[in-house]
Amino acid sequence: MKKKFRRNIAPHGRVFSGVVISRRMQKTAKVQWERRVYLRKYERYEKRRSTVIAHVPENIEVNEGDRVMIQECRPISKTKNFIIIKNESK
Questions:
Q1: Do the Cβ atoms of 53 and 64 come closer than 8 Å?
Q2: Cα–Cα distance between 33 and 47 in angstroms, integer?
Q3: Strand (E) positions, 1-90?
Q4: DSSP 49-64
Q5: Which terminus, N or C, of the chain has the lesser number of Cβ atoms within 10 Å?
Q6: What pLDDT, on a 0 to 100 scale, did the predictor assign at position 3?
Q7: Handedness of CA 23, 82, 61, 25 (dihedral sign)
Q8: Rounded distance between C-alpha atoms, residue 69 and residue 28, angstroms
Q9: For the chain, what is the domain count?
Q10: Do the beta carbons of residue 46 and residue 72 sit within 8 Å?
Q11: pTM
Protein backbone atom coordinates (compact mmCIF):
# COMPACT_ATOMS: atom_id res chain seq x y z
CA MET A 1 0.00 0.00 0.00
CA LYS A 2 1.28 3.42 -0.97
CA LYS A 3 1.71 5.95 1.80
CA LYS A 4 0.27 9.41 1.29
CA PHE A 5 2.51 12.17 2.51
CA ARG A 6 0.73 15.43 3.20
CA ARG A 7 2.99 18.41 2.93
CA ASN A 8 1.69 21.41 4.79
CA ILE A 9 1.54 24.52 2.68
CA ALA A 10 3.13 27.33 4.65
CA PRO A 11 1.70 30.73 3.68
CA HIS A 12 4.15 33.62 3.54
CA GLY A 13 4.37 36.93 1.72
CA ARG A 14 1.61 39.25 0.62
CA VAL A 15 -1.99 39.06 1.87
CA PHE A 16 -5.02 40.11 -0.18
CA SER A 17 -8.76 40.20 0.40
CA GLY A 18 -11.07 39.47 -2.51
CA VAL A 19 -14.24 37.81 -3.77
CA VAL A 20 -14.49 34.26 -5.14
CA ILE A 21 -15.70 34.53 -8.74
CA SER A 22 -15.32 30.89 -9.80
CA ARG A 23 -15.40 27.61 -7.91
CA ARG A 24 -15.58 25.15 -10.83
CA MET A 25 -12.21 23.47 -10.25
CA GLN A 26 -11.50 20.92 -7.52
CA LYS A 27 -9.64 22.36 -4.49
CA THR A 28 -9.28 25.64 -6.40
CA ALA A 29 -11.01 29.01 -6.52
CA LYS A 30 -10.56 32.08 -8.69
CA VAL A 31 -10.33 35.21 -6.52
CA GLN A 32 -10.67 38.79 -7.74
CA TRP A 33 -10.20 42.17 -6.04
CA GLU A 34 -10.28 45.80 -7.11
CA ARG A 35 -7.53 48.33 -6.63
CA ARG A 36 -7.16 51.99 -7.49
CA VAL A 37 -4.31 53.28 -9.66
CA TYR A 38 -3.49 56.96 -9.92
CA LEU A 39 -3.14 58.38 -13.46
CA ARG A 40 -0.85 61.39 -13.34
CA LYS A 41 -1.84 62.68 -16.78
CA TYR A 42 -5.53 62.96 -15.90
CA GLU A 43 -5.07 63.55 -12.15
CA ARG A 44 -7.63 60.87 -11.38
CA TYR A 45 -7.85 57.36 -10.05
CA GLU A 46 -8.82 54.39 -12.18
CA LYS A 47 -10.24 51.06 -10.98
CA ARG A 48 -8.31 47.96 -11.94
CA ARG A 49 -9.01 44.33 -11.09
CA SER A 50 -6.54 41.62 -10.18
CA THR A 51 -7.44 37.95 -10.52
CA VAL A 52 -5.52 34.96 -9.16
CA ILE A 53 -6.04 31.23 -8.78
CA ALA A 54 -5.97 30.12 -5.12
CA HIS A 55 -5.83 26.74 -3.38
CA VAL A 56 -8.79 25.84 -1.13
CA PRO A 57 -7.70 23.78 1.91
CA GLU A 58 -9.91 20.90 3.05
CA ASN A 59 -10.89 22.63 6.32
CA ILE A 60 -12.23 25.80 4.62
CA GLU A 61 -15.57 25.89 2.77
CA VAL A 62 -16.00 28.59 0.11
CA ASN A 63 -18.61 29.29 -2.57
CA GLU A 64 -18.91 31.82 -5.36
CA GLY A 65 -19.53 35.32 -4.01
CA ASP A 66 -17.77 34.70 -0.67
CA ARG A 67 -15.28 37.27 0.57
CA VAL A 68 -11.97 35.52 1.38
CA MET A 69 -8.47 36.37 2.55
CA ILE A 70 -5.63 34.86 0.50
CA GLN A 71 -1.88 34.72 1.06
CA GLU A 72 1.11 33.85 -1.08
CA CYS A 73 2.69 30.42 -0.73
CA ARG A 74 5.03 28.11 -2.61
CA PRO A 75 3.96 27.19 -6.16
CA ILE A 76 1.32 24.45 -5.90
CA SER A 77 0.87 24.10 -9.67
CA LYS A 78 1.68 26.04 -12.83
CA THR A 79 -0.84 28.78 -12.00
CA LYS A 80 -1.51 28.42 -8.24
CA ASN A 81 0.72 30.51 -5.96
CA PHE A 82 -1.89 31.56 -3.38
CA ILE A 83 -3.81 29.78 -0.63
CA ILE A 84 -7.09 30.78 1.03
CA ILE A 85 -6.44 31.36 4.72
CA LYS A 86 -9.83 32.68 5.88
CA ASN A 87 -13.45 32.93 4.74
CA GLU A 88 -14.56 36.40 5.85
CA SER A 89 -18.19 36.11 4.76
CA LYS A 90 -19.17 33.69 7.54
A1: no
A2: 10
A3: 15-22, 28-39, 44-55, 67-72, 80-87
A4: EEEEEEE--TT----T
A5: N
A6: 61
A7: positive
A8: 14
A9: 1
A10: no
A11: 0.85
Return d(Cα 54, Cα 7) in angstroms, integer: 17
pLDDT in tens, 11-59: 889 999 999 999 999 999 999 999 999 999 999 999 999 999 999 999 9
Angle at 61 between CA 57 and CA 62, to 5 degrees: 105
Residue 54 lies in a domain: yes
Contact indicator for 72, 10 with CB cutoff of 8 Å: no
Contacts of 5 (CB under 8 A, 6+ apart): none
Q: How far apart are the first and last CA of the chain?
A: 39
> Measuring CA to CA, which residue among 42, 87, 49, 40 is closest to residue 68?
87
In a domain, 10, yes or no: no
CATH of the domain at 30: 2.40.50.1000
